[in-house]
Every structure is written in C-alpha cells, then in structure tokens.
C-alpha cells in the first residue's frame, strides 16, 4: 500500500496502528499508476482510499471473520462498500442505430477491428434485437465467446458520462431507490481498438434499451452521428448537392475513404458479364429442350400413327404422346432444379463468406423457395408448349405418311428437263445391258465353280462430286435435322466460349487486384487496453528489423519515442532547465499531421517543409549540425522560442544534441501534457541506437506478394511469439479489407466457373455424340437403299460421316463467331482452353457419327428396308 499526496491527513493516522492488531482498510487499482496490474504484486499496486470516501481510513477488525457494518455510524462505509461491489460489475452500455456504419468501425480508419463475430447493424435496431458487441479484453477477462449471453440490470443514473459507474454525489446517495430493468443480451461480436479505451464499454441497439431509461439524444456531436449512402457511386452527387447548404449551417461534409471507385472499376464489368449469362444459358436450355422434344417425337411419331390407324381420336392419341414426356420432364426438371439450386446457393454462400458487407450483416445467399418453384414451373411450361407444338405439327401429317416413315412426295405438274451434264448416282437406262443368266463353269483343275460378274451391275460414280451433290440435297431436304445439328453445335460452342471468357476475365481482374492492392500490416499490443508509462504499444527495434527482413515490406511508417530530461542552450544561452520532454521520430509528415493529428496546423520556417522527415541522418551530421524539428506551439510559447531558433536537449545519460525550430504545430496530440517534439526518425534512430522504442509500426506490403500473404502471417506469428516470451504480448493486425471484400469473392466465383467449364464441355461432347448418333440412326433406310443400289459400304459411311461433321463444323464456326463478337477481338479464339473444348466437341460429334454409321451399315440392308410391326 502507498498513500497519495491528495490525502496528507492520512499520514499521522498510520501511527495509531498497533502491532499485531487487525484493521479494515480500503485500496484500489489505478491504471495510470499501475499500467499492468496483477494480483501477484498487490502490495505495490493498491492505492489507499478512505473507507467512507472522506476521512475514515481504517477500522479495527476483531478476530472473527466478518465485520458488522449494520450498526450506527457506519452506514456511509457500508454504502461505499456496496457501491464498490456495484462498480466491479458495471458496464458502460452505449446504444447505436448502426454500429457497422460508424467511421471508427470501417477498416480504413484502422481504429476498431473485429476479432470474431460481427458488428451490430441497422436490422438489429429495426428489430430491437437483444444483441451486443463487447471488447476483447473484457471477453478474455470473463471468458466470453460469441454466442454467450450476458444478463444486464439497467439503472437510470443521473450522471451518465462516467463509464457506467455510480459517481455523482446524488447518485451515490440515492442509487438504491432508482428503478432497475433486467434484461439478457447475446454477444454477437468481439472487437478491439487500436488505442486503449475503457474495456467496460459495450454496444447494444438503441431500440433495445428499456423504454423507461433516459437517453442522451439532445447533444449533437460529430462522434455520435454518421450517415451511410445507398451506394458509393452517389458520393460525388451527394457532395455537389449538399456541401454548400450544409456549410451555411456550419457542417462540413467528409467521407471515410472507401476505395469505391476501385471496387466498382473491377465489379461493374463482371456484373455486366454475369447479367449476360441469362440469355446465353437460356438459349442453351431452349435448344436442349428442342433437341429432346425432336428426338422424342421422331421416335414416337409412328406409334402416334398406329393409334390413329386403329381408330383412336386425334385428341386421345395426342394426349398419349404428350403424357410420357411430361412425366419424364417433371421428374427431370424437379431433380435438376433442386440439385442446381442447392449447388448454386452453397457456392454463393462460400463466395460471400469472406465478404464484409458495409451494413455489417453476415453474408447470406438464401433466396425465397418461391423463386425455385417459379423457375421450375417456367421450364416445365416451356417444355409443355414446345411439345404441344411438335405434336400439333405431327397431327397435320397423314397417317399413311407417318407409317411409311418418310415425307410424301411432292407432285409436279410438269416434268423437269433432263440435265445431261448432271451425273447421278445411277447411270442412264441405256447403260444397263441385259445379259444371259449367270452360269457356272468347272475348271479342270478344281471342283470349285467361278461366277462371272454380270455386266448389268450399277456403275459407280466417276468422281466425288456426285456424292457431294447428293449429300447437299439430303441436307436441304432434312432441313429441321440440319438446323438442329447446327444450332446445337453453335449454342454449346457459344456457351463454352462464354464460360472461357468469363474465366479469363475473372482471372485477369483477380491478377490486377492482386498486383495493385496494397495490404497494410501493423504491430499492436494483444491487449490494447494495457499501457506503459511511455504510452500505448511500445516495442524494440529488433521487432521492426525482423519484419523488414521478411522481404514482404515495400514501405513502412514508423513512430519512435524517446524522453529528454533537460533543456538549455536556447539561442546560445548557457542557462538550462530540468524538464520532462517527449520526442517522437517519424518518417512521413503527411501521415502524422494530417491523419494522426487530424489535420493539425503546421507552420514551417523559411526553407523547410515536410520533406525534412525523409532525410537520412548520420552520426557525423548530428554532431556537426542542428537537428530540424517541429515543436508544439505551447512548448515554444513556454520557452519563448521562435521559428529558426536553436535549443539543446539532454537525455538521462547526459548526451546532448542541438535542435533547430524548423516548425511548430498547434493541435493537442494524444493526452494533455503529452505534445511531443517531432523530428526525423533517422535522427532519433542514430541518437537512441539499440535503446530506440517504437510506438507505431505500419508496413505496406508488396502487392506482388499478396498471394503469399499467409506465409507472411505465419512468419510474423513466429517472430512475435519469440518477442512475447520476454515482453508484453504483441500481435500483427492486417488491414486487408479490400483484398478480402473484392478479391476473395472473385476467387470463389472463379472456382465455381472453373468447375462448371469442364462440366459444360463434357455435356456438350455427350450431346454432340448422342445427337449425331441418333440422327445417323434415323437415316438407316436411306443408307440401306444406297447399299442395295450398289454404293460401296465405305462410301456410304463416309457420306453420312462427312455430312454430320460438316453440319457440326458449320455450327462450331457460328458459335466461334458469336464468341469473337462477345470478346470484341478475334484473337480470343486462339485461347488454348477454348480450342481444346472445340476439338473435344468435334471429336464427340465425329465419334457419334462414326458409331451410328457403323451400326446402320453393319446390318443386312434388306433387313433395314423391311417394315416390322
């Protein structure tokens, strides 16, 4: 225990203590005198305090363990003890409409930062949610985690500006009579502050306060009010419309730096590209439905004709043709929609998980189930309409035609003139000579008979032009099949190219952001509420040098501190004075004066400016010249110093240096009486050497190494862990909101696209394979006719393969043309992944055509020409 000079009357009372007697005394901890108190050294940390708050310093304590404070004359002491018990459990509860919108909670302010959980937001205010955000030091002291609950008892004190404590005399006398309002709150966020603040301050929604509690809303102070625009795009318009009007009533408009222009520069093009996904994939969906319907009706139209031939009404036959595809479609749409919905929402939630929204709301990717139902119903209705149109077209054709499996020939009124130059697959009738019946003739040397080839076999075409013309005519006659093949190829190539473009564009934007976004890291105390006699967060040069040797640091801002004990040599005078003088070395004047001192007014002497802090000083220069420094205005007034004057400052080791008054500033720094002399950091480093202590160390990291940020974090954790074993615990805080809020969601989106791309390619290959296979299989009778007419099997196979391949190639070229238009540059078609996807699609189409041709030409042509019931 020790006594304060505020109570000199207590000293004589110590003499009244009798050895061996027990006394009741009162002590308290004060962070100003004991910055790092622990219960292991209470004898040197506790400060003596009167029992009754006035003149009673001790009471004799009997041997029994309890002291009766209910008797007369001790009511005041009892009240003081009970107040102490209340103070030990008191919290300063601050109400907020939207904590997440406060300037100090924005990462760019580098003041408050979340350790876990979230900030309170406006939704909490609207819903009067019983939630709170607490400081990390309080949470550690009470072992509180996010999700825990804290029971509060609100008491409407008259004095509200003393940290929630019972302070005023009126409150100390009447606090028991004040009404109380118990309530319970859930902890949803834990935060820390760069600078120390009362650890017992907590934040709750203003609407969650008991209605009976008086709220201090009359005072207007900039700290208590801030406003959030709907979008950072509105910032310039808002300033132009309101700045002059607000200035007339004495209000200055200022915005927290939000880097909104950089954000929208990267996001807007991606949003536009994402918005174009709907028509692109809508087209793919439409063509997929058309393909399914076409193939289904192609296979079932003969069943429809049989039903009509057996006497079934058109309406009944159409209904029986429609129901199966609707049932299959309902099942497919339901399964596909639900699985795709869950997959998309999970990926969206994963992408948004790292996004710190301005409102402080925890990112959510949930959507109303009605959207899923509406989308599924829309696809099903589209299937119904397209299938209905197809059935209607079939119903208009004759039953006989459908049973024959081919279109009815068109009747011409006049025979077309014979084109003598046109070669057909068959020779003219005059080319066919009637021969005698075949005969067999035995040769003398063998029992085997040989058959003489007949001369009336169909001759082969003399060149391939005939085959090409035939193929073109078939393509023209099968217009719907040809258009479908081209459309499917074009749509899937367009989808593949679109996905590839989105991937490349996202990747380019991510690379740009990684290479241009500057991440800052700062060394802070793990518990910022703990201070030292020299201020908040003091550490040695070994920590700073360890960070700089990591290879990640591009630039750094430092503030180092030192003390001087004597001032003298003012303008050459020999007189000196004992003084407690604070020095602060900095290396960036703008950061210190404009940000740290919030725009302090600095007046420089002629020939000097803020660049004096960037000069690198050597020991020889310090001894031979005067160190330029910027002095606090009250200091210059106290010692009658003018700009350009010189002064000598001496440290505790009796080492002196001369200083030049190169400027002066007028703002109060941190605390009253703690306005330091500002000088170049390099000069202070030379003067202090290994004794140098830093109070601020903020590092700007190389953007090119942003991808290796986790490696840097790990190395810094190890570095600071070694320091923490011998000093107050330090931590490194990373101000990387821009990287987390933009780059990481883009990376999540990119990973989703990279998953969808191979899936899209595989689906395109399978559909190209299946479509060409089925279309070739539909031409089995035509292939059989060609073979019966004498066309070689190899030529038939080549004919159908080339036909399907050319159609697919034409569709591919159309799709690539669409990709080039979207890219707005033909060079985009040379992208390797896109070329590989195109080749895979063509390979699938070719394989499907070859497989179909093999299947139809590997059978007996007469069997294929038979109509089986």
Question: Can you walk through the features of this model?
Answer:
This protein is an alpha+beta fold. Helix 9 runs antiparallel to helix 14 and helix 21 packs parallel to helix 24. The longest helix is centred in the last third of the chain and has 41 residues. The N and C termini lie far apart (112 Å).
Topology:
Layout: H1 11-14, E1 23-24, E2 27-28, H2 42-45, E3 47-48, E4 59-60, H3 75-87, E5 92-96, E6 112-117, H4 122-127, E7 131-135, H5 136-142, E8 149-155, H6 169-174, E9 180-193, E10 201-205, H7 235-248, H8 260-275, H9 277-309, H10 314-352, H11 369-395, H12 399-404, E11 440-442, E12 449-451, H13 465-477, H14 479-516, E13 520-525, E14 539-540, H15 541-548, E15 553-568, E16 576-586, H16 589-596, E17 602-604, H17 619-624, E18 627-632, H18 633-638, E19 646-650, E20 656-665, E21 677-680, H19 681-688, E22 693-701, H20 709-724, E23 730-735, H21 737-777, H22 780-788, H23 793-823, H24 832-857, H25 861-865
Parallel strand pairs: 5-10, 7-9, 16-21, 18-20
Antiparallel strand pairs: 1-4, 2-3, 6-9, 8-9, 11-12, 13-22, 13-23, 14-22, 15-16, 15-19, 15-22, 17-20, 19-20
């Amino acid at each position: 225990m020790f006594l304060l000079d505020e109570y000199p009357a207590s000293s004589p009372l110590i003499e009244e203590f009798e050895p061996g007697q027990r006394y009741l005394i009162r002590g308290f901890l004060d962070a100003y005198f004991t910055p790092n108190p622990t219960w292991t050294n209470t004898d040197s940390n506790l400060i003596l305090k009167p029992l009754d708050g006035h003149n009673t310093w001790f009471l004799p304590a009997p041997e029994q363990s309890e002291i009766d404070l209910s008797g007369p004359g001790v009511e005041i002491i009892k009240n003081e003890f009970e107040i102490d018990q209340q103070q030990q459990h008191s919290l300063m509860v601050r109400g907020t409409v939207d904590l997440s919108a406060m300037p100090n909670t924005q990462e760019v302010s580098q003041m408050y930062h979340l350790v876990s959980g979230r900030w309170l937001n406006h939704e909490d205010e609207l819903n009067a949610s019983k939630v709170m955000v607490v400081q990390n030091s309080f949470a550690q002291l009470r072992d509180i985690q996010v999700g825990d609950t804290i029971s509060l008892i609100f008491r409407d004190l008259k004095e509200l500006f003393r940290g929630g404590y019972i302070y005023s005399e009126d409150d100390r006398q009447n606090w028991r009579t004040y009404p109380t309002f118990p309530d319970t709150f859930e902890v949803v966020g834990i935060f820390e502050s760069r600078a120390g603040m009362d650890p017992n301050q907590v934040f709750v929604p203003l609407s969650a306060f008991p209605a009976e509690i008086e709220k201090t809303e009359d005072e207007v102070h900039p700290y208590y009010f801030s406003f959030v625009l709907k979008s950072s795009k509105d910032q310039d318009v808002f300033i132009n419309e309101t700045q002059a009007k607000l200035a007339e009533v004495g209000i200055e408009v200022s915005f927290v730096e939000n880097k909104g222009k950089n954000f929208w520069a990267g996001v807007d093009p991606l949003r536009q590209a994402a918005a174009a996904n709907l028509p692109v994939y809508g087209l793919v969906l439409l063509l997929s439905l058309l393909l399914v319907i076409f193939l289904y009706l192609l296979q079932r139209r003969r069943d429809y004709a049989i039903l009509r031939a057996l006497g079934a009404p058109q309406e009944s036959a159409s209904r029986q043709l429609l129901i199966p595809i609707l049932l299959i479609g309902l099942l497919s749409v339901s399964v596909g929609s639900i699985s795709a919905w869950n997959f998309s929402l999970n990926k969206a939630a994963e992408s948004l998980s790292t996004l710190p929204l301005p409102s402080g709301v925890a990112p959510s990717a949930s959507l109303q189930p009605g959207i899923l139902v509406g989308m599924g119903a829309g696809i099903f209705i589209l299937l119904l309409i397209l299938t209905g149109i197809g059935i209607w077209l079939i119903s208009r054709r004759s039953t006989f035609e459908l049973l024959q499996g081919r279109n009815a020939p068109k009747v011409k009124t006049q025979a077309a003139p014979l084109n003598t130059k046109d070669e057909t697959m068959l020779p003219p009738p005059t080319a066919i000579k009637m021969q005698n019946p075949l005969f067999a003739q035995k040769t003398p040397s063998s029992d085997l008979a040989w058959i003489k080839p007949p001369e009336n076999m169909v001759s082969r075409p003399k060149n391939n032009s005939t085959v090409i013309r035939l193929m073109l005519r078939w393509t023209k006659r099968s217009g719907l099949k040809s258009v479908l093949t081209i459309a499917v190829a074009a749509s899937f190539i367009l989808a593949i190219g679109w996905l590839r473009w989105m991937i490349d564009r996202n990747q380019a934007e991510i690379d740009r952001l990684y290479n241009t976004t500057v991440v800052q890291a700062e060394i802070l105390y793990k518990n910022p509420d703990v201070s030292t006699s020299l201020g908040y967060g003091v550490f040695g040069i070994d920590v700073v040098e360890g960070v700089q040797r990591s290879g990640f640091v591009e630039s750094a801002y430092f503030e180092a501190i030192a003390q001087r004990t004597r001032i003298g040599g003012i303008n050459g005078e020999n007189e000196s004075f004992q003084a407690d003088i604070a020095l602060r070395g900095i290396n960036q004047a703008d950061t210190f004066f404009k940000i740290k001192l919030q725009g302090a007014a600095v007046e420089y002497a002629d020939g000097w400016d803020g660049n004096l802090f960037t000069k690198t000083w050597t020991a020889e220069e310090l001894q031979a010249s005067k160190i330029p420094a910027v002095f606090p205005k009250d200091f210059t007034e106290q010692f009658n110093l003018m700009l350009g004057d010189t002064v000598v400052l001496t440290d505790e080791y009796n080492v002196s240096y001369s200083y030049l008054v190169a400027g002066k500033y007028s703002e109060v720094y941190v605390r009253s009486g703690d306005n330091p002399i500002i000088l170049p950091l390099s000069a202070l480093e030379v003067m202090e050497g290994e004794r140098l202590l830093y109070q601020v160390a903020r590092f700007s990291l190389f953007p090119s190494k942003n991808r290796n940020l986790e490696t840097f974090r790990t190395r810094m954790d190890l570095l600071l862990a070694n320091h923490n074993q011998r000093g107050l615990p330090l931590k490194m805080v990373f101000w990387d909101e821009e990287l987390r809020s933009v780059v990481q969601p883009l990376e999540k989106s990119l990973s989703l696209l990279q998953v969808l791309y191979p899936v899209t390619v595989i689906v395109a290959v399978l559909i190209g394979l299946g479509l060409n296979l089925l279309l070739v299989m539909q031409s089995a009778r035509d292939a059989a006719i060609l073979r019966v007419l004498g066309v070689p099997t190899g030529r038939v196979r080549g004919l159908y393969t080339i036909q399907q391949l050319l159609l697919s190639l034409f569709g591919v070229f159309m799709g690539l043309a669409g990709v080039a238009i979207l890219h707005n540059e033909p060079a985009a078609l040379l992208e390797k992944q896109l070329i590989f996807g195109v080749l895979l699609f063509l390979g699938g189409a070719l394989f499907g055509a070859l497989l179909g041709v093999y299947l139809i030409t590997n059978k007996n042509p007469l069997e294929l020409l038979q109509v089986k019931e």
